[in-house]
Amino acid sequence: MEEAQEMGIQPAGEQREGEDSSQQATHIPEDFYYDYEELQSRPFVSPDSGIPPNLLRLIHSFGYDCNRRANLQLLDEHTLGFVAGNLVVFLDLRSKEQRYLRSCSGGGIGIIMVHPSKEFLAVAEKGNQPDIIVYEYPSLRPYRILRGGTAEAYSFVDFNSAGSLLASVGSSPDYMLTLWDWRQEQVVLRCKAFSQDVYRVTFSTDNPGQLTTSGSGHIKFWKMASTFTGLKLQGMLGRFGKTTLTDIEGYVELPDGKVLSGSDWGNMLLWEGGLIKVEICRRGGQPCHAGPIHQFVLDEGELLTISTDGAVRVWDFEGIDTADAESDSGLFEMEPMNELVVGKDVSLLSMVKSFQPDSPIWFAQDASGAIWKLDLSFTNTTQDPECLFSFHAGGIQSMDTSTTSHLMATTALDKSVRVFDILAKQELTASQFKRGGTTLTWAPRLVNPKGGLLVVGFEDGVVRLLELLDPRGLAAVAGRGRYNGAELRLLQVFKPHTAPVSAIAYERNGEILATGSLDSTVFFFTVGERYEPVGFVRVPGPVRGLEWSPPSHERSTLLVLCENGHVLEIMTPEPKAQSSGQTFEIQGLPSRHFHFCSIKSRILRDAEVERRRVAREQRQKEREARLKKKQEQGQTLTEEDLAEETEPEEEELPTLHSPEPPSPLLCGLYSQPGAFWLSMGGYDSGFLYHCKFSEQQGGEQEPLQRADEPFSFLPVQDTDRDPIWTISFSSSRQLLLCGMQSGQVRLYPLPPHGPDLAAMQGFWALSLHDNQYGRLRAVRCSHDDQFVVTAGEDGNMFMLSLLPAEDLQAALDKKARVPSPREGLEKEKVVEDIEDPNAYSIEMAKQRTELERMQREAELRRAGRRLELEELRLQFTQKLQLNQSHSEHGRLDRAEFELDPRIVQEYERLMGQRVRETCRELAWDLEKHRVRLQKLQQWYLDNLESNTVAVKAFQSDHMVFTYRLLAPSRKLQQQKDQGRRPSQLGMERRRSRVDFSHESSYPEAIPEDVDSEDVLLQRQGMRGAGKLSGRQAEKLQKAMEKAERVRARIQKRKNEWEELYSSKPDENFEDPQDVQAIRMAQENMGDFKLKTAKDFTVPEHLRMNAEKKRMQLVALEEKINELKTDMNDKIMALRDFKSLSIAHIKDCVRQLRAVQRHLPPAKRQPLPSVPRLLPEETPENKLRCTRAKLLKYKELRARQARTAQLEEREGGFGGLGSELTASQEEEQEEEEEEEDQEEDDTGVPTQDSQGPSEQHAITPFDMEEEQQQETQSLFLQGHLLKQVEELVQSFDLKLYELRSKKLQLDRHLKQSDLQHITLFEELQLLKEFEKSENTLLERVNARSQEELELQGKYEECQQQLEAKRRDIAKLQERDRALTTTFQASLGENNKFADFLTKVFKKKVKRAKKKEKKGEEEEELESEEESEEESEWSDEELDSGSESGPLDDSVCPPYCDPALFENTIQLREKRLDLEEALLEEKKAADILRKECDSLTKKMKVVSASLSTAEGDLELLQREKQQKLNELDVMLTLQLHQMEFVNYRSMLTQALVLDKSALEALERRIQELQQENRQQSELYRQARQQHVQLLHNHRDMEAKIQELEARCEKVMLMKFGRLLDLEALQMQTLSVSRNLEELKQESSEREAIFTHQLQELEDEVRKATEAQTEVIRLHTDRLWRLDQLMTENKELEERLDSRQRKMGVQLPGRRLAEQDERRRLIQLVETQAQESQALRQEISLLSRKGGHILPPAQPPQPLQDGIGRPAHRGGHSNPLSRHSVPATGQSLS
Fold this sequence. Notes:
Mean pLDDT: 82
Strand order of the largest sheet: 1-15-14-13-12
Low-confidence stretches: 1-24, 476-483, 980-1026, 1204-1218, 1238-1256, 1410-1446, 1743-1787
Number of strands: 65
Distance between the termini: 67 Å
Shape: extended
Strand content: 15-25%
Radius of gyration: 59 Å
């Protein structure tokens, strides 16, 4: 019991405190019901307050707690149930009417659950020790109450599938898991579930003893296990391993015990054995859902999941159940079979299914505030999702009622504003916005007499004015959509704050609107047709509430309540106070501050002091009354009575302190001018504090440092932990409505003379909303005080009635009036809304406008100064020109115009500084443009493997262009590296069957005729030295070696026979080569259909999928890219050759110029033009940027700016680029002309330069030299010109050849492009089939794998079964051999043969083997045998016996005892064999049944595999037909075509390659030749078969003859047939253990002989010691005799003296008495000693007796000498030390 409690498990029968044990054991009858009226919680009414208990009646619930887990249950076909605070709401789907079931505890409801039979409803409540109440449905009578399951609240309950058990799990702090026998209100099991929040608990549908719980960061698997102490709950915590820890919202138990759960990131986790087996995701690693999965449903073999992403997905259950990780990542990818996305912004939490059979209708709970009706049939007739009901999503932030009609408006963080008709109990209209609403106020009648204006604040600081109107009768009204005869139209929108708006209030005269926000500001607006901003003030903290002073106050002031305890009173600002200025902030507005300082600790201290004072006075009065009573009774007052009573020791008084952090301020209101009430939370709750502003305002003290205390307080009952959250008054101000933090509504009646909170006494209270998180945000009365409406943070809204029951129906029959639209509404423009959450607020917009205005003014000033500087510069230029126009002597020096050089230096310094600053300022732009250029280059150039380059011929316009190639993309590279897909690998695995080895996996069987001991010795070998030594060990070793050789020879012969028999082919054996040839023939021969045939079957090796087609496409693209790259390399090589040719030509021209300088002009031939590279031949030069190019670009850009508007609209970049290209060409031409000009300058000299040489006289030698030089120059000129011409022609020839090759390549590439288009079309088509094909392939692979696994198991089972059969046969053979041995042992003519046979065959009850848990030990039970337990009757035992019953325990007379013992031993061996045989047969039967089961499973899987393959084949056929429909373009020339069959149309012809046709013709001839060869082989095989049959018959006859001879010889030699091998093994068998035991026995015998001799010596010594002790004790006996004699003499002497003395003096008589006592004591002591000696003698007289010391040692005597005497007797060696005291006294 203690161990169970330490483990957190409580016994099922443990009794609760205060529970009657007799009631606990009482059986509850089936027809027992509780009274609901006695159980339900009722409103609390203060005693003696006179408030009627039925002050308020619940009328309707408008909300829905959509964020509560599993808060939607279907009770019958037309009724939904859900929890709303302290109520269970039953909603009729047809009439939309509601019924309510109130909680019995008043603390709220945790969860509800419907019984599987739909006849009961379990309501698990909240509160202190809450109960689970099971109601009968539909009567709603309380049927059972389950008590004590948790401490505070239940988080989930669930019935088991049979409905007999209920599981519940509690919330914080105990998290207790309890299993109930709910019909008997008994706890079955109890255990702590976990140490954190637990979300769900469910029973397993298929495994009744298993449960699962999940929650925050855990999942736990439970099992109800029977132990030796009873039924226990055993929990196993799921271990996440490498998976990230996650909260688990939903899960489902699978039939095989696995559990499938969700995760925070949307994937599914498959749990097995407490570990994550695999994580399931979608293709590409995408999550199964885009959010946590909240519910799993197994419905009719399909798995449904719902998630917060609003999707319902259906998954293949078998695929999930058999899922396994495909890689080390632990992920398994799969796609859902069906999917339904309910809608945008839908967040599904739970679903329940309709009760109708085969109905696909489900009802879903939407966390976005809706209930959906879903059709999950997934057919062509599937209905779209239908939203049945719409509510606020999450808590209500604000609510208000109309001042003119029974209308209610609400807003919440779900970005909606809704208007309700509380009489009609319906929603009139709703408007959606970009941000959630935080506060709402209905404009008073002074502002809007029709009551149709709403002011709503939102979380982004925006305030919207919404106009409610009835749009009926309007043709078209701009605004939002209509709904139920009402519409909300946006009237005005402004953004005064930057944080959520927390409060909105109208001034009492309706002239000013104030808005407060969490940004610690209060903004004021003037009220009119348009609300204009007045200004804002800053407050010390986030605004909690705004309260304008009532009309009874003299001044109009605003009370600002801040969350941090600050309260401000602000005077109403003047509307035109801030008409102009740079900001809207109002400075100097009169205000007063109050900072709340806690006084609760002082209040509690004063209360404790008062309590102690009252206690002291009470004790004093009781003392005085007690004294007075004694005096009246005439009793004398003692000093104790008159003394002052001591006061009891008292504890120290509570210390005074302030809470840290300070308590939050919740709400407040004016009480009188300058005074107000506050309700505080936290530590200061429990009171209403009456405060007032101090007269000492302002001064040096900061408002944040103030510490003001309330001057009064009012205790509020039961609010220490449940403070007042909101306060409001009824229209008549006769009722004070308080909304509590716990969701409770309180009503305080107020006196009629005025709302004075000090008069608050009695109250009426009712818990409506959730007590944990349903604090009230608003409590309002209707305009006529007939109804009360509440709104809480749990999303619920309740309407209650103040009317009597008889007037209520009449009021509800009416409808609320919706204001009619204003005149001219249709002509008004639609107001533009503020949708950007980052839009400027009013203050920020004004500051930005002011900043822009200042910037504009500064720019205008700078422009004016620039104009003045320009005028001065112009005047200075004119002065300079005038100075230059004067004569030189009248001009002024330029330096004289400088007034001061330092000015220029300072200007240059400032200019340099500005340049550096400008560089620093432009550094970011420079880096930005650099990065931009880099990105452009990466996008347009880095992705280019080769750009277009043109190469032009020298003498013609022929050009050749390179291909523009893009670099291979990552996707292409991935596809190339990807290889084969897993589906292809799966097909290959499916095609390749695993060859299971038929060899047995069991160890080789031991021959039955070999002794197991010998075999063990053989297996162990000669390990160790053994226990034998010398010749015995050597002899034993030789015998064993000889036996081993014989055994090896026999085993070798057996192996040879087995090998021979194993090589024997089966009757159905087929040659593998023949099988392969037949398979090839079946695949390649026959009447095959064309691909266009409808019954064409696509072979597996020809089947095409998207991945194969993609690889073909990639291969084609690679080939195209390779060809283009090769051609580009050739063209670039040609361009390089052109560059070298141009350089060579330039060199030749340079040499020509040098040569022509030595030739006369007449003989000079014109120089060839030097070709140049065109810009398109060097496109890389376009990216080279020079300063000249930049200046040119700047000039062209300026020119571009002055061009026409058309170019300006086109951006100008194209024209600019062309002009820039032209400029580049001009620039290049100019550079080349300059180079030519330089060469001309350094080249041929002019006539002027030759003039001087002609002036000299020419000699003949000179003329001859000039002629020789001229001839040489002419030769060089011709050679160089020819060389230039050859270069030009050679390049043009190469270009022409390359151009021809490129044209041919272009033709091939066009064909490749056509093929690419075809492949792409096929790929697109195959992609359409990819999903379904992959699904079918997965099915086929899964079935194939399953079939292989089953086949492997079947083969293994067959092997085990065959091994068992062999074992059974061996056991039977051993049984027969044992019987033969018994018969041989009897011999012939044995007269006890019948008796011994009966003994041998007798059935004896054997000792059973008992297994101990956790150990493999065997215990033998009692071998006693009784007639009742025997399986054999006396008749069977005595059958055939004439001498009476058989008694096998006694050997009969004259029977050989050895033979009888041998028979008994053989019987035991026979019984052992029979038991082993029985066990083997049982095991064989189990294996046979398992084989039958596997055979059935294999048939089912094979049928499923055939179906899947058939579906796959149909899909392949359909895919092939679709591929056949694609058009393929093939370019053929006429000379390539030959039409064979001229009788048919060309359109029906089959296009074949010529080589294929020739191959078919050759194959026909080969097949004819092969047919003739096969016929000849068949004839030869038949002849060989006949010859082999004759040989077989001859061999069989010979074998029979040899066997007969062998048996004859054996009978002659042994007299019977024997197993020679077994006989030989038995003869040669040697038992090493026996020899060792003999050796060990002889050694031990020698040791024992030696020990026996030592023991005999010890016995002899002990005998001698015993004799000595006997002698000593004899002496003691003699001494005792002497003492007895002396004692007798002393007694006689004493008696004689007493007779003689007579009467003596008293003193002497006393001495004598003492002496007498001493002597009597001495006698007694001696008697004890005597008795001890007698006992010692008695002990010594017995052999082996132990002598014990006496109880009290005798006193030694002081005198006496004894004479030793010797007496006979036995001595004990241990008695020598037994009485040492006596021995010493006698020595």
